[in-house]
Amino acid sequence: MTVAEQTEVTLEVGQHKELPVGPDGTGRHPGREMHAILEIGVRCPERTGAPAPGTGPALAEVLVLDTSRSMLHPAAKLHAAKDATVAAVRMLPDGTAFAVLSGQFDATVVHPGPGRQVLATAGPGEREAAERAVRILDADGGTAIGAWLDLARRLLKDQPAPVKHVLLLTDGRNEHDDRSSSPLATVLDACAGQFVCDAWGIGDDWDAELLLGITRRLHGRARAVRVESELTGAYEELIATLLGTAVPELRIRLTPTTPGTVIRQVKQVVPTEQELQPVPAGPGGRAAEYVTRAWGDEVRHFQVVLTADPTGRERGEELQLAAVEIVVPDVRRPVRLPRPRPVVVRWTDHPLDASRRHPGVRRHELYQQASAAVAAAYRAWLRGADGRDTADHALARALALAGELGDAPLLAALRLIEAAPGTGRIRSGLKDVDWQHLILSSALTTPPEGPDAPAGGDHGGPLPAGPHAAGPPGPDAAGPALPVRPDGLIECPHCAWLGPADSVYCGGDCGRPLNGAPA
Q1: Longest CA pairwise span in the chain (Å)
Q2: Helix %, strand %, coil % for the chain, to 5?
Q3: Cβ(264)–Cβ(307) under 8 Å?
Q4: Which of 57, 198, 395, 430 is the most exposed place for a label (fewest CB within 10 A)?
Q5: 3-state secondary structure string across 375-399
Q6: What is the DSSP string of 25-62?
Q7: Using CA atoms, how far apart are residues 368 and 57, in angstroms rounded to an integer?
Q8: What is the pLDDT of residues 215-246, one digit of tens each?
Q9: What 3-state DSSP class applies to 162?
Q10: CA 335 vs CA 167, 327, 332: distances in Å
């Protein structure tokens, strides 16, 4: 096989190397955390979704339909769920292990049949039988999602396929978790690392935070349809993506190389935020591995946080803190891996140098603030007239942050909530489901569009993108600019954080608006 026919994994490490030796103005040493952004890509050659010869099917799939009573109000939800499930089953290649589950107070195997504890094997007859079983489903009972996922876990437990996937659909809010023998929190602990789960909402009464909680734990994505008829196309697109999986499992191996270096956190930050937990990297040694799953032809970003000790180190000395390596276990196709990359530090006494952050780190902070602003606007909106002013201010902040990020999809989602462009006010007549869609939109993240357009520039300052980059005009504008210190920094008056003079929001504990942001 030629190099061009191999799947290739790429790795780049982005960071600002300087960390402060001395304490900040409060006497703390928060700057002794080194933040690095890992940009990992998988590039795969043109090929079919068929497995490599002699390797067997690449996918084991469990489709879970919510068939609680609410799916009949309106019945279009249940009809759409059936159509989408049948379309997904029809796409499964021969030999693929699969099952269809019905979810109510408990979970039932629709196909290959009630009480069966094995998966069906896709072929013409099995696909047709599954379709017949799905078409006659009715809806009754309540919603206990923990029981649904627990049955999926047991069915997938002994499957040899490298990609184990659950596609979950619900229109509800897990209202009957307390009646289930398998509470959701306990089930998620048992399911973590066993399969990938994508969760979808349909109708007007699903819960975005519930879907996000499931998918963040199970390495999937949370999505929803606004119109029932959109579900079939969405399912077909997702199954096609799964069948094109190039790397079922990819591990990030981190090895501290300098005494005093500690790995504090590793998380995915693009296209969604997911906390990663370490797994043993073999006997002995200081390395830890962080598992990511189901890669197609794509790029993801990860944030690594290390703490470092400057004791006995020279100022200006460049020192490697850790090595980053990519590991692909049990690979079925030839994969070309990148060479290991270092994470380094250079200790400095200069506060301006120490305040700089890689634009990817700053960008993720802005996304966190935007998501928090959306959540705050929603909570205030739920209070009715009493929360209107608070909700408007939170929406204005979310708009300003989306503009600073240059995130067109997030701006578009926010403008569906806004009364009129540029007002920063919440429109009347909103439904709760409108907010649920916005919460999902605020959980999606994107990288900068190109190397010349980083979010916030090299040191995390503002990017004047979009009409809301500085917030709405008028009385909501920020007050006087903060004074710039002789060292080129400004100090947050609320928590004493020091940062670049063009910071729009505090990068410290309080996260409050500073220069040019809505007050």
Answers
A1: 77
A2: 30, 25, 45
A3: yes
A4: 430
A5: HHHHHHHHCHHHHHHHHHHHHHHHH
A6: TTS--GGGEEEEEEEEEEE--S--SSPPTTS--SEEEE
A7: 39
A8: 999 999 999 999 999 999 999 999 999 999 99
A9: coil
A10: 28, 10, 9
Structure token digits, residue 105:
């107070």
**CB–CB of 302/15 below 8 Å?**
no
Tell me the two tokens of residue 145: 């999602």
Cβ distance 94 to 178 under 8 Å?
no
pTM: 0.84
Instruction: Match 């910071």 to its residue by tokens.
Output: 503
Residue with tokens 């049948």: 86
CA-to-CA distance for 417 and 414, rounded, in angstroms? 5
Those residues whose C-beta lies under 8 Å from the C-beta of residue 425, and which sit 6 or more positions away, are 392, 395, 418, 419
Ordered alpha helix ranges (H), 321-416: 351-355, 359-382, 388-405, 408-415
What digits encode the pLDDT tens for the residues 448-479? Answer: 875 444 333 333 333 223 333 333 333 333 34
The pairing of strands 298-307 and 33-43 is: antiparallel
Tokens standing for 119? 């998966």
Which residues are paired to 265 by β-bridges? 305
Tokens of 412: 């578009």
C-alpha pair distances (Å), 11 with each of 3, 21, 301, 404:
17, 29, 10, 27
DSSP summary character for residue 151 = H
Residue 137 tokens, joined? 């489903």
d(CA 112, CA 63): 12
- pLDDT confidence of 500, banded at 50, 70, 90? low
Structure tokens at 129: 């039988």
What backbone phi and psi angles, to 5 degrees, belong to 341?
Answer: -125, 150
Name the residue with tokens 């696909």.
Answer: 127
